């Protein structure tokens, strides 16, 4: 049986990518905010905001 990726994996990838896009002090907080919102949400109720990167 193969492992499934976490439901917020794409949000985490957005956070990592934001670290390398311009000034991390400006690009990371919005991505981090969406990641935290995803982690705190119930399964199936993840934020529908567009991905940043």
UniProtKB/TrEMBL annotation:
Protein name per the record? Uncharacterized protein
Q: Which organism is it from?
A: Ostreococcus lucimarinus (strain CCE9901)
